[in-house]
Write a structure and sequence with these properties.
The chain is of the alpha/beta class. It is 30% helix and 21% strand.
Length: 398
């Protein structure tokens, strides 16, 4: 039996994606319906569909003290940390609680694999990585979290979550457990994934990439658009930030139905939803907005549309925002968490961009265009390969 959790304050957050750098850029794009997707101009796979690329990542220079961590993924992480005064908020939390009492939990599905790809393309005559990329820690799955710990000066519990597209949603759940157990007094959570050949060619091999900009929940949807992003949030106990929005609940489940497709009836997704609502102490009718996983693949959208139709009243609004950002993979959870938080802050439900002909199986809950309305409770869905599901419930401070 899932029992209600003690809410946590989200005292700071930030996001950088194809929509721009920082929360204001994201809110402006969502408000005015501006997509960040464009024809693929990245790497050795420019013919593969459309992408949500963050401009200027290649020009970012890491501080000299962090030079050993230099790669595209960590440059994107560093760029993301510079936005919305987030570094200052983390430094203040570190001063308040101590570096050992601030946890760091980041989700990623690629980490710095782009640097590893480059290293293999440039093997020397002895078959070894080139000297400038002969940095073993850079090629490890935890390279993102290790880099961020060094960049933020944090010595508390440090965890990398890599569960495909649910990665940076599940970090909220792990952080909540750490704080509940008294192992930390605050937690930096988030995720970063950057474009690389492995992702583009891999999803193309699965025949999941659309040749055009993705169209979530469109009757003729034909695949996803890959994006990249960096996002972070600072979680603390409510007394540290009593007026900040709250993490009210989280739910996790695995349906293990198929390597790359969800359970057709949404069994695992519904288990995660039930657990999130139970921890929040709410029923589905109290949810004002649902940010859907909504990848624009046939199976995911069909499953999620059916789940929304059977669980939420017509008054709940629901939309996918991947038509704005693309599917940012391991960073999708944090990106869409910030969108849910902005829906609460600004009273703005983003439209389901890209769906010219809505799938008739979608119910009255779907917001096909942006809407202005009060949002007190917002839910964010993140569903990964292998049936790894996570749902987060956010709420306005009383």
């Amino acid at each position: 039996m899932t029992t209600p959790m003690t809410p946590l304050a989200i005292s700071a957050c930030t996001v950088t994606s194809a929509l721009g750098r920082g929360l204001a850029a994201q809110h402006g794009a969502l408000l005015h319906g501006g997509s960040g997707l464009r024809p693929n101009d990245f790497g050795s796979a420019p013919r593969l569909g459309w992408i949500g690329r963050v401009d200027g990542v290649e020009a970012i220079a890491l501080p000299a003290t962090l030079a050993d961590w230099d790669c595209r993924n960590n440059r994107l992480a560093w760029l993301g940390l510079q936005q919305d005064g987030f570094l200052d908020r983390v430094h203040a939390a570190r001063a308040r609680h101590g570096a050992r009492r601030v946890a760091l939990l980041l989700g990623t599905s690629t980490a710095s694999i782009g640097a590893t790809e480059e290293a293999y393309r440039r093997l020397d005559a002895d078959g070894r990585f080139p000297a400038d990329l002969r940095r073993p820690a850079l090629h490890a799955p935890d390279s993102l979290s290790a880099f961020a710990a060094a960049a933020l000066g944090l010595d508390g519990p440090c965890l990398t979550v890599s569960t495909a597209c649910s990665s940076s949603a599940k970090v909220f759940a792990s952080a909540a457990r750490l704080l509940a157990l008294g192992l930390a007094d605050a937690a930096v959570v988030g995720g970063v994934d950057s474009l690389c050949d492995n992702v583009l060619f891999g999803f193309n091999a699965l025949e999941l990439i659309s040749p055009s900009a993705c169209r979530p929940f469109d009757a003729a949807r034909d695949g996803i658009s890959i994006g990249e992003a960096a996002g972070f949030a600072l979680l603390e106990r409510v007394e540290a930030a009593p007026r900040a929005p709250r993490l009210l609940g989280y739910g996790e489940a695995s349906d293990a139905w198929h390597m790359s497709s969800p359970h057709p009836d949404g069994h695992g997704a519904e288990l995660a939803l039930d657990a999130a609502l139970a921890r929040a102490g709410l029923d589905a009718a109290r949810v004002d907005y649902v940010n859907l996983h909504g990848t624009a693949s046939r199976q995911n959208d069909a499953m999620e549309a059916a789940l929304v139709a059977r669980r939420f009243p017509a008054t709940t609004r629901a939309s996918s925002t991947k038509g704005f950002t693309g599917h940012t993979l391991g960073a999708a959870g944090i990106v869409e968490a910030t969108i849910a938080l902005q829906a609460i802050e600004h009273g703005c439900v983003p439209g389901n961009l890209g769906a010219a002909t809505p799938d008739p199986d979608c119910g009255p809950q779907f917001a096909w265009q942006g809407e202005s309305r009060r949002v007190d409770v917002a839910l964010s869905n993140s569903f990964g390969f292998g049936g790894n599901n996570a749902c987060l419930v956010f709420g306005r401070a009383p």
